[in-house]
Every structure is written in structure tokens, then in C-alpha cells.
Amino acid sequence: MNVTVKRASASPSLPRCPSIIILFFLLWLFLLFQESTAENATLDPSEAEALNSIFQQWDTQSVALWNISGEPCTGSAINGTAFESDDNNPAIKCDCSYDSGTTCHITQLRVYALNKKGVIPEELATLTYLTFLKIDQNYFTGPLPSFIGNLSKLSLLSIAHNAFSGTIPKELGNLTELEVLSLGSNNFSGNLPPELGNLSKLRELYINSCGAGGEIPSTFAELLNLQVMEGSDSPFTGKIPNFIGNFTRLTSLRFQGNSFEGPIPSSFSKLISLSSLRISDLYNVSSSLDFIRDLKNLTDLNLRNALISGSIPSFTGEFQKLQRLDLSFNNLTGEVPSSLFNSSALTDL
Length: 349
Description:
This is Disease resistance R13L4/SHOC-2-like LRR domain-containing protein. The protein is mainly β. The chain has two helices and 20 strands. The protein has helices at residues 19-39, 45-57; strands at 42-43, 91-98, 103-110, 117-118, 132-134, 139-143, 156-158, 163-167, 180-182, 187-189, 204-206, 228-230, 237-239, 252-255, 259-261, 276-279, 300-302, 309-310, 324-326, 331-332. The longest helix is centred in the first third of the chain and has 21 residues, at 19-39.
């Protein structure tokens, strides 16, 4: 007897959902949950009162992107909208993860280039969760209060382009989480506090045109993570510190229009990450250009009126990234190396 065996027909394969789509879907659900939770949270009452008082004293108010229906921590303050967009100024950011998602704290505050006047109110000390404070390009006056040093979570403090006066408070040295400190273009007096040397996480330091002067404190030798240091047009005196040569992460260093005595430290030969070096208006002791031999990442080299003597080394022709070179008002001799004109990058000599 012949038995015919029928093969079971293959069931149609179900479409497979790529794992990446599942991950995106889960992420979307998570963000949706987070936003929903945040929308049900409210700003800590003491911070809400402080924010209202600060804005009242600065004659400013929230924008439509946040503070929806009278709750500051709504809209762009929690949903990730670009914090520094032009339409979102003044602006705050909140973290609403506290007390099981029922309480928000202000973590960022920006009042930027709004021509506001006044002083820093005492109420700012209430915003102890701040990690970001940017109030530059206004007309704020008075001293920089010492209580700023109690905002220990700050990673950015920018008060440049105002009219703050008095001494720079030593309490800033307590802000050990700071990565960016911008004090430039103000009317400070006295010397830089040595306590700023405690800011070991600092990546960017702007003290140009700040008004403070004197010698750079020796404690600054601890600022080994600096990538940008700008101190032009401030009355700094003494010698440019030799320890700056240990700041090997520096990409930009600017000391112009100061009262520094030469020479440029030979230790600067170690600053091989530099793309911009501007030092000018030195006096008393001359320097040569030997220290720049290995600084081949330079795109901008300005040593104007820096008592540079000797000749322009032929190795400058090897600086293929160099775009701007200013060696004017020095004591150079000899010819300009022809190799310097072989660089296709050089546009300003």
C-alpha cells in the first residue's frame, strides 16, 4: 500500500521588528513618562519665591516657553528645548526627579545680554542646586557676593561684560566643580585670590579686562586641566609664570596689554596642543622664537611688541596650519624665511 505523505505547508513568517525600533519605542515611552511626571511636579516653594524676587529686582520676567500656567518648571524648563535659543531668554532649567518626581529644583539660570541693571540679590543664595549661572552682557553693578561660593554645584559661572566692582571674592575657590569661569570685562580691583587655584576641574578661565591685577598666584599651578586661558588687558605684573608650560591641554592662551616682564618662559615649548597663542607688550627681558619649534598645531600666533629678538627660524615654514602670524614691533633681524610663504593656510602676515 502506497502512503502519500503531505508536507505541511510552511506558515507565513511573521514580520520581525528590528531590535533598534523596540529600543527607540521603549526610550520614547520612558521620555514620555519622565515628561508626564515632570509636568506633575512643582518647583520648591523657596526657590519659586527667590526666582520671583530676583526677576522683580532685575525688571525681567519669564517667557512663554516656560512658566506655563504659573508653574516655572514647565515647558522648555523641563522638556529639553534648546536652553540657549534666542527666544528662550531669560531661561531656567529644572530637575524634577526629587521626592519621587514631585519636587523640582532650578539647575540652570540664564539672563544674557538683556541690558538689565541692578546687583546680585541675596535671594540667589537660595538656588543651591544651580550648576549653570550665566548673566553676562548686562549692566549689573556692585560687588560679586561671597555667598556665590556656597553654590557648590556650579560647573559654569559667567558674569562677563558687566560693571561689577570690588575684589574678586576668595570664596570662589569653594566652587570645586567649576569647569568654566568667566569674569572678564568688569571693574574688579585688587589681586586674583590664590584660592582660585583650588578649581582643579577648570577647563576655561576668562580674566581679560577684569580689572584685577598683580602677579598670577602660584596656586594657579594646580589648574592642569585648563584648555583656554585669556587674561589680556588686565594689569597683571611680574613674570609670566613658568608653570603655565605644564598646562599641556591648553588650546588658547592670551596675555596682551598687560604689564608682564619678559622673557616668554621656555617651558611654553611643551604646549603642543596650542592653536592660538597671543602674548604682547612685554618689557625688560627679550625672548627668542626657539620655544615655538614644536607648536605645530598653531593657527594663530601673535607675539606683537614682545621683545622678540634674533631671526625668524626656518622651521616656521613647517607650520602648515598657521593662518595668522604677527611678529611686529620686535627686534628681529635677518630675512623672512621663504619657506614661510609655501603654506597654503597663511592668510595674514
